Amino acid sequence: MGIAEEKLDYLLDNDENRDCIGLKNVNERLKNKYGDNYGLKIRSEINKGTNVTIIIPKN
């Protein structure tokens, strides 16, 4: 039911000493393959929900 803003920042940051790496890993792989303009975009609102968009080139 939503993720706090400080937690959202943590999900994709580059801290090497962390225990959750799944979303960060996917985001970094997309950026490495397609460039810095691509990857995951996460929007969330407490008590409403979370939306994760994968941004990749059309072709």
Structural features, described:
The protein has 59 residues and is of the alpha+beta class. It contains 2 helices and 2 strands. It has helices at residues 5-12, 22-34, and strands at residues 39-45, 49-55. The chain has a two-stranded antiparallel sheet with strand order 1-2. A hairpin with a 3-residue loop joins strand 1 (39-45) and strand 2. The longest helix has 13 residues, at 22-34. It is flat and about 35 Å long.
Secondary structure layout:
Layout: H1 5-12, H2 22-34, E1 39-45, E2 49-55
Antiparallel strand pairs: 1-2
Summarize the structure.
The chain has helices spanning 5-12, 22-34; strands at residues 39-45, 49-55. With 59 residues, the protein is an alpha+beta fold.
Output the structural class.
Answer: alpha+beta
pLDDT < 50 runs, ≥5 residues: none
Task: Specify the number of helices.
Answer: 2
Residues in helices, as a percent range: 25-40%
Cα end-to-end separation: 34 Å
| Secondary-structure element series | HHEE
List keywords for this structure.
about 60 residues, alpha+beta, two-stranded antiparallel sheet, 2 strands, flat
